[in-house]
Amino acid sequence: MMLEEKDLQVLKSMMETVVNARASKTETVLLQMIQDLKRKAEELEIRIA
């Protein structure tokens, strides 16, 4: 099966959208984890002090 150039462009665009969405979601999850760790560290420092 041969795909035409416009079909390939559409597929490429769709794949890029999926990859970007996954990367964005991963980044968001990591940022949330970092925020949680910072909060925990602050709580521990308060308890220790």
Topology:
Blueprint: H1 5-48
Describe the fold and architecture.
With 49 residues, this protein is an all-alpha fold. 90% of the residues lie in helices and 0% in strands. It is built from 1 helix and no strands. The protein has one helix at 5-48. It is rod-shaped and about 65 Å long. The mean pLDDT is 89.
Short characterization:
This protein has 49 residues and is mainly alpha-helical. It has one helix at residues 5-48.
The helicity comes to over 70%
Give the helix/strand class: mainly alpha
Instruction: Catalogue the unreliable spans.
Output: none
* Mean pLDDT score: 89
Shape: rod-shaped
Content of β-strand: under 5%
Order of helices and strands: H
In whole angstroms, the N-to-C terminal distance is 69 Å
